[in-house]
């Protein structure tokens, strides 16, 4: 691949866009990290299409994520998620926000790694819980102690999310600030890989 043309004085979004080239930018991380809402802003900044994998799954199945889990179970949902992700990742550049379990699935993770730059939005339990407890759209959290369930998922999944190309700390700041941090991290990751 040829080097992106980045000129001194280009804005953050121009530089991030040039760095990305035709690769996808894929946001991964636990429920509540901000993948869907921050991903949308990042795509707008970069001027490339945005797709939320859960939204696409709901569109093609004409069912909500909760309905899919209830009707077919998690294994079937994962199989559908893998198929949808493989298709979504074919035509870069796009910003693709994944559902929290997508990167944990071996096959889906391989597709993600091959098709672009993965960004882990990493948040602590208090931030995640504060956000997800406001809505009941997440079937995996319909348990007796959902906060504990979230913590268990965190312990199980964080070593796998750590395989992402880039990690950005998802904090209690405005979504626009988070989006800027993602753009900066994309540029920094490229600079580091060029220097090493
Ligand atoms: N930086 C942020 N500051 C405040 N609220 C946020 C932030 N990021 C996300 N949220 C809110 O948290 C909830 C979960 O965000 P969402 O983007 O759906 O996360 P994910 O897709 O990772 O599960 C939403 O209600 C969203 O508006
Ligand atoms: O973590 C998970 O396994 C899931 C996360 C959800 O997406 P968000 O991470 O966008 O909430 C959604 O895909 C489904 O409820 C399963
Ligand atoms: Mg989401």
Automatic annotation (TrEMBL):
The keyword Kinase applies. It holds the Pfam family SKI. Binds 1 Mg(2+) ion per subunit. It catalyses: shikimate + ATP = 3-phosphoshikimate + ADP + H(+). Mg(2+) binds at residue 36. Its main location: cytoplasm. GO terms for biological process: amino acid biosynthetic process; aromatic amino acid family biosynthetic process; chorismate biosynthetic process. Its cofactor is Mg(2+). Pathway: Metabolic intermediate biosynthesis; chorismate biosynthesis; chorismate from D-erythrose 4-phosphate and phosphoenolpyruvate: step 5/7. Keywords: Amino-acid biosynthesis, Aromatic amino acid biosynthesis, ATP-binding, Cytoplasm, Kinase, Magnesium, Metal-binding, Nucleotide-binding, Transferase. GO terms for molecular function: ATP binding; magnesium ion binding; shikimate kinase activity. ATP binds at residues 32-37, 138. Substrate binds at residues 54, 78, 100, 157. One of its GO terms (cellular component) is cytosol. It is found in: Cytoplasm. It is an enzyme of class 2 (transferase). Belongs to the shikimate kinase family. Monomer. NCBIfam families: PRK13946.1. This is Shikimate kinase. The gene is aroK.
